[in-house]
Structures are given as structure tokens and as C-alpha cells.
Amino acid sequence: MTQSTRVLRIGLSCLLAGSAWALSASAFAAPVTFDRLKNAQNESHNWLLVYGSYNAHNSSSLSQINRSNVSNLHVRYTLALPGMQDFPAQQAIPAVNDGYMYITTPWSQLMKVDIRGGSRATTLWVNDAEVESTGSMRGSPALLGNYVFHNTRQGQDVRLLKIDADSGETVWEASLLVEEAESSEPRFTMQPLAINDKLLVGNTGNDNGGKRGWIGAYNASDGSLAWRFWVIPGPGEPGHETWAGDWGAWATGGGGMWTQGSYDPETNLVLYGTGEPQPWYDPEFRPGDNLYTVAVVALDADTGELDWYFQEIPNESWDMDTVSMRMLYDIEIDGSMRKVQGNYSRNGYYYTIDRTDGEFLGAEPYTVINWTAGLDPKSGMPVEYNPNKVVQDYAPGKAMRAGHPETSQNVCPQYRGAPTYMPPTFDAKRMMAYVGANHGGNCFSQTLEEPFPHENRIELGLGSQFGGRQHTNHGNLGEMYAVDVLTGKKVMGAIHPNHLYSGALGTAGDLIFYGHLDGKFAAYDKDTLSEVWAFNTGTPISASAITYSIDGTQYVAVVAGGQNRSSNIDHPEQALVQRSAMLYVFAL
Q1: Does residue 481 have a pLDDT over 50?
Q2: C-alpha to C-alpha distance for 65 and 33, rounded to whole angstroms
Q3: Preceding amide of 292 cis, omega within 30
């Protein structure tokens, strides 16, 4: 592949004249070892992983900023990020190592910023992958050794890049294009996850006219492929039999990967939540349970072999994927300690699954649900699920049937606002999990007219982009939820005027920080969910915040310039909120 990466850096003469300290040894952060990543939650002064730690708690032990003094929080400095008004949504989460911040942009640029001074951010270099197409990037770049890894977002030249953390020079590029998986528009909305000597990535393009999803591991040394797990199993692979019919629906089966996984060093298992099957609003076209879509899959981090899985909705038909983050924690159940994963699913249930073997331990509704009458307490399957049927019905009139407008009407919760890629936060002291998302009363209806015949869908390689699909959303409110993880039950909720697309950052100061689509960045009391501080950035926020400390001072940072829409039925004025790509850094 022709190298098309350029590096924009501060000139050497400028460094020598104005800031010669940048050339000293103190200008370099310590290498990020695998041991540091495994213990990232103990480095509260840094933010080394996308959700703060492998266990995806999105939480910090810092408490200098707390309920008693958060009213004094103010902007310490800002930094304009590469971009312009018509950029896609800024959804990047920065990474911080020893006073240096790394930020990605929708144009697949990677920035290194010096934030050690605490009063300004100085850009040291910008590595520009020079992509031709752009889109929202979620998550944070991966830090490993003295390198930074990130992948480009979409297009026929999708790449994984290894970049020298000191110089900003590209060490190698590896193509992520896989012919069996992609069609016209390959997409990768999440950044890589570093585990040991590998970088794990997953494709999303199958949700946009692609074929089938996968998770792959690339060797950090040279970018070679170590292993690949197909979310949609091919002929001869376990699970392929769950794609019934003889027209090859599996080949465009979907299962896109949207968010970075969680990792349990004790079992060496990495857990990912998977996307919906495609076409998601025509389950009759893809009869069967459609493994391994709408599931959590536990893979051996060294080999990519499937250890266990748990599927939430076989033959799903509403885009209720389960790509939400898997929070890892231990709880006592029936007198025994269990190692579990907890997740807010897009279908309205909070699931508790044994993370060592995939045993279903329970699920409770946290919002309004009518797509099913409930879940079986033993299997976790919807009570209407019939293993002898290849097309599932679920609640009467709720499951989608192409060409039948009387089906899939007023389904709750709404498909696009319940937690998807919005990180929750876990509080180990309270044993509570918090998330911001769509209010469950925002239901939706959908129809699909004039479906194409099977052979056309396969021939064209169309995953979701076919037919005259129409949907109507019934409401536009957001809600912040709090679940007691010991019971799985919702204990608190707070309504907000717009969908919540950011992410919940929790701190030991008894606070949750959250961004809003109207530009508000706010802190909330963990015990009441009441707002205790707010600052309006003037531009939408749909990225999760981070917190770190330098020389004993705690900072909270968030990337603003997110999406300015959220099915604006009730709030058309939201479309007038302008986007500007900015980093905001707050301190007392």
C-alpha cells in the first residue's frame, strides 16, 4: 500500500527558541506496558484505556472535585480541534499518559497534546492519515509501549496505524479491508483495544450495506493478522445452521461491531456485545436464530476462539442490538461470589451474566418494554421464543413483517435511543450502574414496503440498505438511569429534554459528568441524579468525558462538537445548534 500519511509537527527551530524543554527526557511519557493496562484503574492520574480500565467501569477514584465544591468548577482552557462546522459528530474519548493527551478526529487524524502545564494545551504533532471519506469515531486510541494505535474510519483504504508516540511518525499501516465482509462502504466506528501484544478491532460497515461482522486481532509488532472471529459464521462453522434457508442470507447477515470490548485478565477472555442481524427489519428473509448477532461473545484473547456466548433476542427485528459496554464486577448471588458482566441492553433490560461461562443470572427492565411479555427466568430468552420456529413472533403485533404495516407498531423502547455506544459508569461503593439514554416512553413504529426478492439482496450484497423502510419515533425525551447491580433493578431515573448521546463518567467525588445535545456539560449527584453544576459549551456533546490529575490537580475533559440531532420531533430547534470541534478542560 502506498503510504499516504503525513505528520504535522511544531518546527525544530520553534522548539529550540520557544520551548526547549520539550526536547528533554522529561518530555517523554513512560511506555504503556501490558501490566500498566491491566492495572489502569490504579493510575487515577492517567486515562490509559477507553473506559478507564479493562473492566469498563468508566469511573475514577479521583475525588478532589466533589459535591461540596463542584459549584466552583470552571473552564481552565480549551483547544480547537481539526475540523469545521460540517464535520460528522465528534465522539472521540481522549487518552492520557503522564501529562500527554491523544485525541482522534473524524478525519482519522491523531493528535498529541501537551497538557502538563494545566493552563493550556499545546499540540505537539498531528498525524494525518489523509483519508478521502470521514465519519464519527468513537472510543480512544490505544496506547501500548511507546506507540499509539488507531484505525481510519471508512472507505476502501481502511487501515490500522502504528504511530511513534514521541515523533508522530507512522511506523506501519495494515489494511483492514476484508473482501468477505465488506461491500461499497467499509466502516470502523470504534478504535482498537490493546491486549498484551495485539490490537483488537471490529468492523461496522455491515450495518450500512455490508456483509458480515468480524472481530480481529493484529500483531503490534508488524500489523499482521493474528486471528479473526466471524460474528456471522460461515458454512461449516458452529452456529451457521442458525441461518436457515438455501439462499445464503448469512452472507449479508450483519452483526456489526460498534464499541470496544472489555477484558478479564484472570480468564484471558475479551467480551464484546454484537450488532443486529441484517436486514434488521425483515426477519422472514433470514429465518433462524441468527447467531451470533444481538449477543455477548467471550473470546480467548490469544486465539480468538469462542469460549461462550449469550444471545438476547434470536431473529431480532427492531435494531435492538446489544453493543453496549460490558461492565465487569463481582457480586454475591445465593451465598456465592460470582464474577459477572452487567450491561444495559438496547432492548430495555439490564442483564447479569456469569463472565466465566456465560450462564444467565438475571435481567430486569430499566425502562418501558412491550416488544415481549418478559424473559424466562432460567434461560433469559423472551417468553415467546420458540426454538422450533425459524421466524419468531414475540409480543403480538410487535415483531416486524415486511409488507405488513399493521406489524411493528408502537414498539418500546425506541430503537435508536436506549443505550448503544453511550458508556455507563459503575460505582463499586454503591454497587450501582448509571447510564444516560432515551426515555423508554419514546416508542417507535416501522414498516417496509415492496421488499426486494431474495436473489436481488444477495446479488447486490445489501445488508440493510434496501426496500422502502419507514419509521416514526414517538417522543424525544432522554433519561438518566440508575440500577442496583445486586438486584438488577432500576432505583432512580431523571428525565431530560433531549436524548442523551454522551456517556456517564463517574468519580469518587460522588459525581456523574454528562454532556448534552444542546451543549450543556453538567455534573449530577450520584445519590439523587440532581444537577449540581453546569456549563454550556454552545455546541452539542455526544462524547464521554474523562478525568485525570496533574501535580495534584484534578481535571475533567470532554470533546464537544457532537451530533445536533436526535429525531427532533419535539425539539426542531435542536437542528439550529451549531457544531464546533473543541476540547474543554475544567478544574477548580
Answers
A1: yes
A2: 29
A3: yes
- Are 191 and 91 spatial neighbours (Cβ–Cβ below 8 Å)? no
Neighbouring C-beta atoms of residue 26, cutoff 10 Å? 11
pTM passes above 0.90: yes
Q: For residue 141, give the nearest of 90, 208, 75, 95 by alpha carbon.
A: 95
CA distance 212 to 510: 42
Reference 49, options 114, 89, 93; nearest CA is 93
Q: Which residue has the cell 441484517?
A: 278
Residue ranges making up the domain that contains 188: 6-587
- In the block, residue with C-alpha cell 505528520: 7
Reduced to 3 states (helix: H, G, I; strand: E, B; else coil), residue 388 is coil
Task: Look up residue 358 and give its three cell numbers.
Answer: 456465560
Contacts of 153 (CB under 8 A, 6+ apart): 106, 108, 131, 133, 134, 135, 136, 137, 187, 188, 189
Task: Please report whether residue 1 resides in a domain.
Answer: no
ω into 218 cis (within 30 of 0): no
**416-435: per-residue pLDDT in tens?**
667 888 899 999 999 999 99
CA 379 to chain centroid, in Å, comes to: 27
* 520 contacts 513 by C-beta, under 8 angstroms: no
- SS3 string of 408-454? CCCECCCCCCCCCCCCCEEECCCCEEEEEEECCCCEEEEEEECCCCH
* Nearest to 539, CA basis, from 584, 491, 484, 509: 584
- Quote helix, strand, coil % in the chain, to nearest 5: 10, 35, 55
| Mean local confidence (pLDDT), 479-506 | 94
What confidence score (pLDDT) does residue 507 get?
98
Judge whether 158 lies within some domain: yes
Q: Do 166 and 180 form a contact (C-beta atoms < 8 A)? A: no
How many CB atoms within 10 Å of residue 25? 5
Question: Each residue of 403-416: pLDDT tens digit?
Answer: 788 888 999 998 76
Strand partners, 495: 479
Q: Residue 566's closest CA among 134, 89, 51?
A: 89
Question: Which amino acid type is present at position 273?
Answer: G
Q: What is the pLDDT of residues 204-230, one digit of tens each?
A: 866 555 688 899 999 999 999 999 999
Q: How many structural domains compose the chain? A: 1
* Cell triple for 280: 434488521
Q: DSSP assignment, residue 87?
A: P
DSSP string, 112-150: EEE-TTSS--EEEEEEE---S-----EE--EEEBTEEEE
Q: How many CB atoms lie within 10 A of CB 141?
A: 27
Q: Is residue 205 domain-resident?
A: yes
Q: CATH number, domain at 352?
A: 2.140.10.10
Instruction: Give the containing element (helix H, strand E) for 535.
Output: strand 531-536
Q: Where is mean pLDDT largest: 49-63, 78-92, 237-251?
A: 49-63
Which sign, positive or negative, has the C-alpha torsion 138, 142, 148, 153?
A: negative
479 in a structural domain: yes
